[in-house]
Structure formats: C-alpha cells, structure tokens
Design goal:
binds phenylalanine; BirA Bifunctional Protein, domain 2; elongated; seven-stranded mixed β-sheet; 2 domains; alpha+beta; 12 helices
C-alpha cells in the first residue's frame, strides 16, 4: 500500500512533469496521466477502500492535498503557456499596415467618377456640419410637385419632362422624381429645425443629348432654422466651390431666376478660369431662400422658420472638375471609359489628405 513517502514522490514527479511541459498538448498529456480516470492520483483515491478504516481519513486527506496542488500547478502552467502561445501568434501574424497594397485584382476595379465626386461632396458638406438624407427614386406627385409650391396645372411642372407611372384607381400618379427637392419636404415633415442636410441621388427627366441623360444625379442642400439668411447661402456655396475645385478663390455669379419653391431664387455660375477655362461662366446649381408656402406645407411655422435650399447637378460638376466631355458615356457601361476616367479604390477623398490627390 502507498505510503506517505510514495505520495511525496508522486507529487514531486507530477509537478516536475508539469513544469517540463512546453506546450498545451504536452500539458494535457500530463494532466490525463495524473488526474484522468486512470491517472496516478485518481488511482490512489480508488485504493482508499482497501485501507483499514482508521487510516482512510488521513490518507484521503493527503491524496486530496496532492490533487489540489497538482491542479493548481496545471492551471498556472496552462495560463502561462496560453499567454506564451498568444504572444508567439501575435508576433507571427503581425502585419505592417504601412506597406503599399499589393497590385492585384482588388486594385483593378475602378470607382465611377459620379461616386467619387459624391464622396468628395459628402466630405466637404459633412465638414460644414451637414447630414446626409435620402428619399426614394419613385415619388408621389404631391412630394415632387404640390408640396413644393407647384400645384396641379402649375406651368413650372411642364419644365420637368416627367416620367409618370400609370394612374392608380383613385387618380393619383406616381412618378420618377425629377429633382432631389422632395427630400426637402420629407425632411421638414419629420425633423424639427435646426435642419442642415444634403440629399444626393438619382433624378429622371425625359431628355437626352450630349449634356442631358434621362437619368442623372443631383445633390440637394437644405438649411432651416430661425436666422439663416442669404449671406449664409452665399458663404456655404463659396466654401463648397473652393474646396471642391481645390482652388483658393472662385468667382461666382448669382443670377436672378425662378423656382416655385424658393423666393428669391438664383442660378449660380462659376467663373471657369478657376478650372483653366478663362472667359466662360458655367452654371452649376439653382438655389434660393425656401418659400414660406413650402415651410407651411410641411407643418412648420414660416413666421418662425426660414432658410435656404440648393440643387446641384452632380454629373455636371464631375464633368467640369475632371474634364469629362460627354455625359452619355457616364452611363454607357463601357469598361474602357471607366478604366480611363475611373478612380482607384485607394483614392479616398479627405479634406486633410487632399480631395483628389
Ligand atoms: N430642384 C431644382 C432643379 O432641379 C434645383 C433647386 C433646388 C433650386 C433647390 C432651388 C432650390 O432644377
């Protein structure tokens, strides 16, 4: 029968084996050989019943003490080995994120100029404190026209070359939105001022030539609060134009115009010498102070709230900035065009890093 000395030896041996285990698998072998069902320590416990009753208690207590010591040693060694394994893995799997991306399939893809220019605009307006809002391409007549101060039969509706869906049984008609301005309504109906949003998206008009396609992109801007005036509008547009065209100064011309949903209304041209085309004025957007009727149509008090809106052709400013001659090519899905005019996915526009460098 095992004596106290045997126990001491056993404990010593097992602790030595634990200390000698150099990885988790080896440690597990040691654990099974000691504490497993048929392990050396467990077998001692099984012998307990064969001892005379007066020896059982003391022997049992000593075996339990050995068992406890062995499990503590196992736990300690396991955490140490796990930590060591993690350190090795971390060193082994270390990546140098400052290395240039390997040329490969991922770099062959190209970002479409419209997506790139949209990201540039979002970057600029986000820096000026604007949020991005969205609305659906399929709109109601009410949001695309009526709430924007263009009731049925208003002559301005005709200028929009609208694509209508077939009328519903109740006579109402859905349409493909002709501008991003319905997002102004959606925003004013759901948010309490102060409001400061841009709303980029697709718009549709039945029109096609070198500078017009049936689908194109606009970016809408809307600011509504209690104090915003035309000076703010002018400043925002100037800051935008300077940042977008990446020049220190842009000369802009505000021409009186007419939109039913703004009063006064203006169209804005930029002096194209800023982008290397002296002697030309290029129209980039329509804008104005939001018409009190529009504010009231959205359930806000026009005596309390005021602000400005603008709508800019995204494709148009992409053409100007990157010298793209034909708008139709934007949407013809010609890979050669995209490879030539597209952007690398690594060209992320940031104000800090330069929009297009
Ligand atoms: N929605 C107008 C258009 O498509 C542009 C615009 C937007 C004008 C906002 C004024 C204010 O032509």
């Amino acid at each position: 029968m095992s004596s106290g000395t045997d126990l001491t030896h056993l404990e010593h041996d097992v602790l030595e084996e634990i200390a000698a285990a150099t990885d988790l698998a080896a440690l597990d072998v040691v654990r099974v050989a000691a504490l497993g069902k048929k392990g050396r320590v467990s077998e001692l416990m099984a012998q307990l019943g064969k001892l005379p009753p007066d020896e059982r208690k003391a022997f049992g207590a000593s075996v339990n003490a050995v068992k406890a010591k062995v499990s503590d040693a196992l736990d300690e060694r396991r955490s140490m080995l796990e930590a060591a394994a993690l350190t090795t893995r971390l060193t082994h799997e270390r990546e140098d994120i400052t290395l240039p991306v390997r040329a490969g399939v991922a770099l062959q893809g190209r970002i479409h100029p419209v997506s790139q220019v949209l990201d540039e605009c979002i970057e600029i307006f986000a820096d000026l404190g604007f949020e991005v809002a969205e609305g659906p391409d399929i709109e109601t007549d009410d949001l695309n026209f009526t709430k924007l101060n263009m009731p049925a039969e208003h002559p301005a509706r005709q200028e929009h070359d609208t694509f209508y869906f077939n009328p519903k049984p109740d006579g109402s008609r859905l349409l493909l939105r002709t501008h991003t301005s319905p997002v102004q309504i959606r925003t004013m109906q759901t948010k309490t001022p102060p409001i400061r949003i841009i709303a980029p998206g697709r718009v549709y008009r039945c029109d096609s030539d070198q500078t017009h396609t049936p689908m194109f992109h606009q970016i809408e801007g809307l600011v509504i609060d209690e104090t915003t005036h035309m000076g703010h509008l002018k400043w925002v547009l100037e800051e935008f134009a300077k940042a977008f065209f990446e020049v220190d100064n842009v000369t802009m011309r505000f021409r009186a115009s007419h939109f039913p949903f703004t009063e006064p209304s203006m169209e804005v041209d930029i002096d194209a010498s800023a982008i290397g085309k002296p002697g030309q004025w290029l129209e980039i957007l329509g804008c104005g102070m939001v018409h009190p009727n529009v504010i009231a149509n959205c359930g806000l008090d026009p005596e309390k709230y005021q602000g400005f809106a603008f709508g800019m052709g995204l494709d148009r400013i992409a053409m100007l900035k990157y010298g793209l001659p034909d708008l139709r090519a934007f949407f013809s899905a010609d890979l050669r065009w995209l490879r030539h005019y597209g952007f690398s996915l690594l060209d992320q526009p940031t104000l800090g890093g330069g929009l297009s460098s």
